[in-house]
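Record type: monomer structure entry
Structure origin: computed from sequence
Chain ID: A
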Amino acid sequence: GALLVSERIDREELCGALSPCSLSFEIVVENPLELYSGAVEIQDINDNDPVFPSSQARLEISESVAAGARFPLESAQDPDVGINSLQTYQLSANPHFVLDVQTRVDGSKYAELVLEKELDREEQRELHLVLTALDGGSPPRSAHVQIHIDVVDANDNAPVFNQSTYKASVRENTPSGTLVARISAYDLDDGPNGDIIYSFSSHTPAKVRELFALDLATGELRVKGQLDYEETKLYEIYLQAKDKGVVPGVAHCKVLVEVLDVNDNAPEVTVTSVYSPVPEDAAPGTVVALLSVTDLDSHDNGLVNCFISPGIPFMLSSSLKNYYTLKTKAALDREKNNMPGIPILNVSATDPDLGRNAHLSYTLLQGDSNVGHLFSINRENGTLYLLTSLDHEDQVEFSMTVQVQDGGSPPLATNVSVSVFVTDLNDNAPTVLYPHPNTNATYTDVVAPGTPAGHMVTKVVAVDADAGYNAWISYTLLQATDPSLFSVGLHNGEIFTARQLREDDAPQHMLVILLKDHGEPVLSASATVSISVAEMVKEVLTDLTEVSPANDPKRHVTFYLILAVILVSAAFFITMLSVGIFKCYKWRQSKELYNSSRSTLYRTPGPFHHIDAVRGGFMPPNLYHQVYLTTDSRQSDVLCKKPFSSSPLGSRQSTIRNGEPGLYHQIVGTASRLPTPAE
């Protein structure tokens, strides 16, 4: 039960700025079966330097700016967190400016230059300062940026905001163009020096600029993109007002936009394990499946109530939040999957006679032994009943003959053919064929170092015993040693390299592939694939020698299967070659016959060129076939049933006339002519 570190952990790559950084996992304990969850917290070390966006910064500051004016500086970024993140800034010694370090709502630091002594352009035209960013490590890491300040003549008055901080709330589903806040600033100057232009501050993140739009003239802040509460709950937006003077005056403010959550995420149910099939003698409390339910919304919108349909012998229990166990609640009875005795069809016939001669009785003829055990018919009204449950995987179609007979003397009867098609339910989870899940053998696929992106490494092969849409399987990568290295085809299960393999990649990779069908409800399975990065196969074989071979009595099955495929392929090739030679021989023979008979083109034709094969007696009645076509399927199958028994053509036509439109009818085909010798 020891949990080990399998490769070097990079906290910044895993979690970015998120703190604390934790990796969650689930543990299944058997005998008794229970599910536990755990988490590993990844602690940060000071392995990253602070970084400024650029090595130099230039400011233009008017000599008329009063003491106390503030000038935001570009912030440095440090991917570390906690005490190892950016902690403070330092400014080189100078007589005019001091540094004020501020803290944002999220805890990050930014610096502002504060004018302590008024500038005089006549005394000093330029100032050169050095801004240093320091983190809290021991020893601390640092970064520097050169600040070049041009002192110029500018307006006597800079714009001033009516408040330094604005607050607003907006719902995450707010449409684009909705007004969030309106900022306002004033300037006592006249003309262009008093005209104000609003804009985002220089240190406003690009993400904020994508989600919000600011009107340059009115200061209206509106929604521009799609807000998502689950991504960001609070936006701290820094804006500035600048006049149109030669050296514009600038004022700054910030807008705090709170994103309100709406119930825009549906709960997601994931079947982590399914134990199927379940025997009908399973004791109450037997575990059938393990489920997990998640909802990305928050507060009441994220609370999930999980339940199952009433009236079934199953129940849900929960030992952990949002984790459920599906168990049997009572004794199971397989014969109650399809309720016996339900009517499925009504065969109806009419008789123009009167009295007893028009009294009809219906009988199910015992053509197939299984039909009598599965179906029955009401003699009086022709209702067809189901006696037991059906399974689409066992048999898709049942054909039977219903005879309707009047009460006259002698009685007259007519037969009608009835076909019952069993529709498919999604009652089978995908089955993994490769890699085989129920074996102790180790399947390891090999990929060479330096393999480019798009190279197919291996393929997960699975089947689903269901049919149609219920059998469509999708493949997704559930877990991987390095999620950025491999990808899996959604519909074919092929595993490709997502990028080129590098020398620093791990030599062993374990992938967990989730297989889901498209039925309702969705059933799933998982497959574990082991991939080794090695120059030669022998390197992998050397690693595998440490694994003791499993005592598998069927270890030679693969060899015999390959041998059988080779023999069948060889036999098929020889057969096709023989057929080709025979066809060539017949073609040459017919060509010679044609050349020899060109002088006899006007000979009287033979007596059997255009003769109805059925009426002339050349095609026996037992060559009639039933043809069924499906209309609601991606692929139509033609099912040729067994030949009809000998009966007069008139009896078949009577059967068709007396059948209901809803029943499947027999299609009788006759040959229009006999084939010519050349054909």
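Annotation 1: The chain has six helices and 37 strands.
Annotation 2: The first helix runs from residue 11 to 15.
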